Amino acid sequence: MTDTAQSPGGFALGRRILPLALLSPAVIVTLAIVFFPMAQTAWMSLHEYILFRPNDFDFIGLENFMAALADEVFWISLWHTVIWIFLTIPAQLLLGLVTALILNQNFPWRPIARALIIIPWALPSVVIALMWVWMYDSNYGIINDTLLRLDIINAAVPWLANPDTALYAIILTLTWQGFPFFAVMILAALQSIPKSYYEAAAIDGASRWNQFRHITLPGISGVLVTAVLLRTIWVANSIDVIYVMTGGGPGYATYTLPLYAFVKARANLDFGYGSALAVMFTLMLMGLVVVYLTRVGKALR
Amino acid sequence: MKKLLLAATAVALFCAPASAETVRFWYHFDNPDNPMSALVEKFEAANPGIEIEAENIPWNSYYDNLYTAVIGGNAPDAAMVKMFAQPRLIEMGALEPIGDRLDGWDGLSELQDNLINLTSAQDGERYYLPIQYVVLYLYYRPSMFEEAGLEVPATCDAFREAAKALTKDTDGDGNPDVYGFGFRGGKGGHDHWASLTLSRDGVALDDGMDSAAALEGTQYVVDLFREDGVFPPSAPNDGFQEIIGGFKSGRTAMTIHHIGSANGMVEALGDDVSAAVVPECGGGRWTSFGDESTAVFAASDVKDAAFKWITFLSSPGNNAEFNTATGQLPVTKSDSDGWEGHPQRFVKATVDSLPFAELLPNVPATSDFVNTVWPVNMQRALIGDITAEEMNAKIVELYANE
Amino acid sequence: MMVAKRSVVRRILTVDLPMLAILAFTLGPYLWMFITSITQESRLFTTGPSVIGATLDNYRQLFEKVGFLSNMLDSLIIAGGTVVVGLTVSVTAAYAFSRFSFPGRRALLLQFLVINMFPIVLLILPLFVLMRVLGLLDTHLALIIANSTIAIPFSVWMMTSYMNGIPRSLDEAAMTDGCTRLGALVRVVLPLCVPGIIATGIYIFITAWNEYLYALTLGGRSVRPITVAVQTLIGEYEIRWGLLTAGGIVGAMPATVLFLIVQRRLISGLTQGAVKG
Question: Rounded to 5 degrees, what are φ and ψ at A208?
Fold first, then answer.
């Protein structure tokens, strides 16, 4: 339902300007602070730029990008990024959804439960990473300790030193860190579904599962789609936890593309190549987002 | 009356000494108790007119921040710096040469011999003023050695035998609970590998890494893990936290570190911890010299004041106070002689190791070696992704590009 | 009576127990951190963290020596400021996106996403130079601005989707009653959006509270949020576990307390009846 077109000229102009006026603060701030540096970085990716040789700034066109495509670490990082995204997001989503559904029910200690849920999300990444490193520790970490006691394993597993388990161990940590986000966002969305719908459905004899499928899911789908989108972007880019837990190791076992860009730019000070990696990553992520939006985003209209 | 006051103020303004110079100084302490403030107070009392703004930067972003600040035009006036960063900082044009100022400083002769040479640039120019140091040595558990009837290993072969004998399964579940050596495979662990490889004849990081001796060294390390199983399984990812913790909790019988951790070790293990020099491997000994110096930055506009401050920190008495706070060893002769900051046996191990304590090559490639090339390739070799030969080849490639 | 009993048991099985399980997973590591923070540092690696011989020494040190209270104040100012800026800007922007269609709408929406796709570590350098040029280094304002740029794009998207869930018919109804567009926003849409605003506000607060990279680079002696303070406990040769975990425990409190206060508004019964008729 759109506004009717029969409005006096002045009002029409006001109507045109109003949305832009409402938008301008957001746009101006982000353009100035982020967009220009982004453009600057993209410009850097076309040059050979090593930070401790600030006088060499040779334009080399797409050479950095060519080098990236030939770089085995690039492909390894890309693959890990894919695993990273496609395991972490569903895990966070499912756990968050279940939590939100439970928290939406009536039970006496609900307020406390709701407040406590947020704790993993509220902790600084570096504290989370170090804590989980210690929990995974193979000498006196509590995870190995418990598993040994329960006889599930008979030798301590070096979760973070074993290239086969390292990435998944970190994914578990990130699931722990991120599911409260979904829980909170979905809980808020659940509020806009009137209770009367459920009552009517119950009277009609619909099962809980059908109620969920036909009332709940459609009701929260808009927020769900957006939350998944935003979280995907955030998780894809998040390297704090990986960096502190394994630094990308052992070997390249926990390298993701943004981590690789970070290492190249900050540790090796190769800003040209690091920027190229960042640009490629952004483009690929944009591709994923566009595909996602066109297929699923109809709910966003 | 008012006129008099006005005149007096005018006179005061004109004749007042130059307004306080502010020296911005960056440092990183492991001690959050902020002992720097005591030193700052002392300096400011002795030097009215100079104000020190000391900022504690978290260690794991210290150099990230420093480079950003230098490039972004907001570098501090002076800072604590290490040798591995020197080539890059010089190439950035960030450092102020202090050779002439040092010659004019009467505290120069108070410094331990050779320290200034060790911290000079490749072209002989001096940018750094040493402020503390450590040397890496071998920690071991005397009780475990006694129980196994072993001597502290003096050679690599003896080291291997000892490590194997000390790796045991103490609770009968079929898995070892004590390992011979806590190897540091994560970032910063290159010192361990270096002691067992770079000690060999004809092998240096920037020359000779393609030799048979170098291969022997790297292979020796890989075999200790993959064949002999004397490193804990977590070794490829272990950082200093894990090796120290593992040693303190009795999971490992030996490890390599330095006097910075000595007091903590004694607190946890009492007398059942001691130190010796690293074993001789393939004809020589090599151990890492842990340096730390201060430097003045070229963009500073209070260079003289900054220089005064850094020399203050490296003078007798003050240097002792500094090192009491940081837990490392002082660089002045007089402070070293009377040093009581650590139990004697650790100081002895340090001093005994000085003759073969070395720094890695003073070139930009070393930064990459420390940050990425060594950790990644050592981990890959340990987990079996690549061979020892391939690892050495990567190192050759890195330094050849210089 | 029987019916009531059965449903209580049923409730316990389907709600309380799963919730307990989830909370165990959620709080387990946090409790472990707490136990570590009350263990004496020297015993940490020998006997391990335990409740026996608990001491509050680490907390005392945290506040006295490290000066954590001022760090928390800095974090609070920055996070609070970011929430104010972020919510104001994103609510108005979301209203525009949700209720209007105009050329460039999709492009602008996408632009917000793209900005957040870029690894921010590479933006540090240009941002640092910008702040230095503006003379804003080491001020709260710089960090509020920097954090807002991270928070705004997401918030705009979230608020847009929450607002989309509120039928336009309500706006129309309000305007036929004589409200202006903005009036409709304030009087009708916003009150219904309260859960969404709360959720988004919490999101902004937490994102700003936990932000580390900008805090480290753009902050300094005067502005040192807790994320930076906690990092100073990770030294070159040691990690002060006791202080670090104490800092983590204390650092998570404000967000949790804030959420405790506002979470009742997260669940509002205001939507009931609004859509009928």
Answer: -60, -40
